[in-house]
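User: Sequence in, structure out. Go.
Assistant: Echoing your sequence, followed by the structure tokens.
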Amino acid sequence: MTEQPLFLLKDISLSIIFAAFAAHIMRLLKQPPLLGYVFGGILLGGNLGIGLVTNAESIELISEIGLIFLLFIIGLEINLKELMRLGKAVFVLGIMQILISAALVAVCFSTSGQFGGGRFNILYLSVAMSLSSTLIVVKLLYDKFEIHTVAGQLTLGILVLQDVWAILFLAIQPTLMNPSFVGISRSLLLGVLLVIASFSISRFGLTRIFKAVAKTPELVVITAAAWCFAICFAAEFSGLSKEMGALIAGISIATFPYGAEVANKISGIRDFFVTLFFVSLGLKIPQPTWSMLTVSLYTTAIVIGTRLLSIIPMSVLMKKGIYTGTVTALNLSQISEFSLVIVSIGLKFGHVSHNIETVVLSSMLMASIISSYLIIFNHSIASMLTPLISRLIPGEKTSGQPSKEKTEQNQEIRDIVVLGCFREGRALLDEISRNAPELIHRVLVIDYNPDVGHFLEPAGFTWKYGDLSNPDSLKHLGIEKASVVICPISDLFLKGTTNMELVQDFRLIIPKAMFIMTAENTSMHDQLMQLGTFKVVIPGQITGNSIFKMLNEAIANQNLNA
């Protein structure tokens, strides 16, 4: 009874230890930590390593949970209003990317003549290579704070359509040998019904629940996680994919102001299981041969080429520009985890030959390595490629600078951040409304009380739900763009943190920002000033008007330094 759990615990423990060891080595070499996780799996495995872990299935079982968490968080990041504002560009780009990529891959592999022996080998390769890795893309874009850029939103939109395409293919896989219109229609209908039910419950039930527990961040997170697994079970019960259920669950609550907080709180759990996912990939890497390496390089080149050829021209046609299209294409230059799932199922059905799974796995790893650097340096690469590509597209004149994207991003920047909106905070905002309305569009208020938004948003201010005791969660609210940070709340009313801790934490995130903080007494005032705080106020001596004056001083100081 206890033998299997003990083996599972041992395998997980060794996987985390080796992943951490390899990730530290990669950090010293200035390489992405994801490569360290894969390398840790290689060291543990029996094919190329020391053979300490041979039961890779136990790791895959746990890593599947990580994939569910990841897709749930992706759903939380998908703002349907933002995607709709992008208009038909996302849908046209996504659909055309899938179709053009699949067609180009089919042509390239058909002419190579290397993949016979399976009835649907070329079909499966075309589908697999048309999908990009949500896991890698979201992780790296998160780290670079590029989720909410124009290219980031296009990338996420295309990934969503790719996921839908993958789910549709999974639905028709069992009927490939004998296609059934009834079977395919049933799967599609169940998917539509699940979406309608999820959004209906979200709107009329979850809204009230979240509002009731908004002041208890832990309950917000556990409620969201419970919702995720409930929809996953409903999807599986309906014959659909658990992963699709997680995605639907996230999207259905993304319109709530608690999405960023939930995403950050769950990200720690997600990263744990995602690490195991990459370790499991390393465990499965076979002994390399020159033939395998050649095919992997060939496949990776095709994947990158098809992304550029399918996305950039369509981006120009949709008036998004060469630069934005190039960044989006570079972001998507890898192979999806879904591809492995699709090919593995195809192998069980006898649709493909065994070497197809090996090709997809080895190519996925190689593309993951290369694309990690393409994403890290996407803007530099795009700046170099844009002038060259513009010569090939008649009528497109550009210097290679991302002017359009920067303009659209700047419209969204809220660089005056107010941490908490209590008495003094409200007084400050009233002063801004009366005396400096031109600053309203620059103000972002972060508070855990949903009632704050009811009076702020009609006045033009932006309110976001956030837990001040967890500064990392605020990164995804745009805090890294701040030039002035104001905390008008004293330590007496702060929960789980202090003004000094806030300054120390935020200095790491936004070192160039100017801070206006609140002290309980003169001793704390002096300590905050020693930390480099621009101004410090003491309760009983402050008013909204005095903070407003300090804000004007900070803005003037920023302009002088600029």
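User: And one key feature?
Assistant: The domain at 413-561 is CATH 3.40.50.720 (Rossmann fold).
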